[in-house]
Amino acid sequence: MWPGARPRLRAFVAVAEHGGISAAAQALGYAQSSLSAQLKRLEGDLGVSVLVRAGTGAVLTEAGARLLPHAREALELEERMRRAARGDRPRLRIGAQESLAHVWMPDVLAALEYGAGGTDTGADVELTVANRKTLEQAFGAAELDLVFQYDNGIRALGAHAVVGHDRTVLVAAPSHPLARQEMVTPEQILQYDFLVAEPGCTSEMLVDRFGRDLLAGARLAMIQGSLSALLRLTGHGHGVSLLPELAVTRELQEGELVELRLAERIRPVSIVAQWRPRLEPGERTLHALLDVARRADPLPEVTRAARAARLPHRAAGERTHEHNDARQHGSSRAAGHRSFRAPRSVG
C-alpha cells in the first residue's frame, strides 16, 4: 500500500460497513472531522469519488463499490503480514451454514485445535454462521477466507473441493401421524406442510434439488426463522422437514425428532469448501483444516464412490481444484477415515 493508505482504507471500509460517517467514526474511535479528512485524502489519492454523502448516511459510488473488496483484501493482507512478522498464529476467517455449524463444524475446529491437522497448524479462528446468501456476499467481499456449504447444484468458482457427503433425511415429531408408519409414501407425505426456515435455506434447497420429483406438489411453509426455530416447530408437530442429517443429529439421538422412512431414498448432499488462494501465512493451516474436514466426512463411502466416478474424466485431462488440492496435500489418504473424537463442548 502507498504511504498513508491504511487509515484511509480503514475509514472507507468502516463507512461502507456502518452505512454512514457518524457510525463509522464511532466504531473506529475517530472524530467525524478526522474520518471525513481521511476519506477526502483517499479520494484525492485515487482521483475519483468513492462515496456520496447524504443526510441519512453515505452511499458507495460505482468506483467505491469496485474498490471495496480490494480495500478489504489489502487491509487483511497487511494484518497477515503483521501477524507473521510478530510470530502470531495465522488468522482464519471461516463461514459455515447454520445446518453445518450445528454439530459438524465445531467438531472439525476442535479437532484442528487439538492437533488433528499436524504440528504448527493452529490458527485464531473467526467463525461466521449465516445463510447461503450472506456467506456468498461476505466471501465475494473478501470478508471470509473459507466457506463450508451444502452443495446447491451450482458449480463453485475458484478454489473449491467436496470434503464430504451427508444423508438427506425427512424428519417429524415423534407424535406426528407419519411417525407411526413403518414406510412412508409420497402420497402420505403430501398431506402435510414442509417447514423451511427461510428462502434459500438448506431445507428449501434440498426440497428443490432432491424432493421435487418425489414430492411434486409439496406445500412449503416458510417460518422466517433460524434452524433452531425450524427444529422446534417440527418437534412440536407443525409439519415435516427435509434436512441434512448433521443438522438434526442431536435431536434424533435424544428422540426430539424421528426420521420418516421413505419408500424411495433421497440422495445424499455433498459438503463443499470454497477458499481464497494465497493465504500465506495461513495456507498451511487452511489445507490442514480441509484434511481434518475430510476425515470428518459423515459418508466416506459415498465420497469415495463419487471421486472414483470422476477419475476417468480426470485421466482424460480434466483437472479440478479438488483433484489438485488432494494431490498436493495428500487429502486422498485422509478421506473417509474418522481418526479423531473432538469434544462437543468446543464451539
Automatic annotation (TrEMBL):
Region spans: Disordered: 310-347
Taxonomy of the source species? Bacteria, Bacillati, Actinomycetota, Actinomycetes, Kitasatosporales
InterPro entries of this UniProt entry?
LysR_HTH_N, LysR_subst-bd, WH-like_DNA-bd_sf, WH_DNA-bd_sf
Q: Which family does it belong to?
A: Belongs to the LysR transcriptional regulatory family.
Compositionally biased tracts (Basic and acidic residues): 315-328
Domain HTH lysR-type, which positions? 9-61
Protein name, as recorded: DNA-binding transcriptional LysR family regulator
Question: What keywords sit in the KW lines?
Answer: DNA-binding, Transcription, Transcription regulation
Query: Single GO molecular-function term?
Result: transcription cis-regulatory region binding
